[in-house]
Specification:
By secondary structure, the chain is of the alpha+beta class. It is built from 6 helices and 8 strands, in the order ββαααβββαβαββα. Strands 1-2-3-4-5 form a 5-stranded antiparallel sheet, sandwiched between helices. Strands 6-8-7 form a 3-stranded antiparallel sheet. Helix 1 crosses helix 3 and helix 4 crosses helix 5. The structure holds coenzyme A. Coenzyme A binds next to strand 5, helix 4 and helix 5.
Length: 173
């Protein structure tokens, strides 16, 4: 890992990714508190209330300060910065996790936010990124494959190396 500062803002065509703030709690808790979202996420408690949201915002800030993880809230550029989901990378090993609220699924935001975070994580010097998915999480599998991750051994483990990312982005540049 390099000592480069963690990004505090990434922009995509439709989204801004930026750190979670306390004032976001009331708007992101109902999204991640939905069992249809939480059931795919290994580390998210359920039920999930405002207290969990506040604890998460504090933890994410601490993890950023201590370079433990990069956690970003995805908000819509339009619609008054409405939160739609979140994405995070654990910096010790490159594990990536992401989620979108149910009303915001199915329109490509997943691919959009992962495509923004991958180069930011590689810019920090991580050699590889990886994600674990449930066998029947076909959407997440598709998002990972679209961005360039490939299954490793067990099909629930997807990985993308910095070298492959360079290759893919040069190829499509
Ligand atoms: C996983 C998640 C982030 C995907 O993001 P998304 O923006 O909803 O993804 P999309 O709906 O654009 O779908 C991505 C791809 O999967 C395809 N897809 C959608 N539903 C599918 C299904 N039931 N089976 C197979 N493919 C499907 C889409 O066609 C799209 O493929 P394309 O890019 O080739 O058109 C989002 O659905 C989510 O938050 N799910 C709940 C939490 C979660 O699963 N997190 C990941 C844990 S590893």
């Amino acid at each position: 890992m390099t000592g480069a500062p963690l990004p505090d803002r990434l922009d995509t065509a439709r989204l801004t990714l930026r750190p979670f703030r306390m004032e976001d709690v009331e708007r992101f808790v109902p999204l991640i508190g939905d069992w249809e979202v939480a059931r795919w996420l290994a580390r998210v408690p359920h039920p999930y209330g405002p207290e969990d949201g506040r604890a998460w915002v504090a933890l994410a800030a601490r993890n950023r300060a201590e370079r433990v993880s990069l956690d970003l809230l995805a908000v819509l550029i339009k619609d008054d910065g409405r939160p739609v989901g979140g994405i995070g990378v654990i910096l010790a090993d490159g594990e990536v996790g992401y989620w979108l609220g149910r009303p915001h699924q199915g329109i490509g935001y997943g691919t959009e936010m992962l495509r923004a975070v991958v180069p930011a994580a590689f810019a920090l010097g991580l050699p590889r990124l990886w994600a674990r998915i449930a066998p029947d999480n076909h959407r997440s599998r598709r998002v990972l494959e679209t961005v360039g991750f490939t299954p490793q051994g067990a099909a629930d483990h997807y990985e993308l190396t910095a070298g492959r990312w360079r290759f893919l982005t040069q190829e499509t540049a």
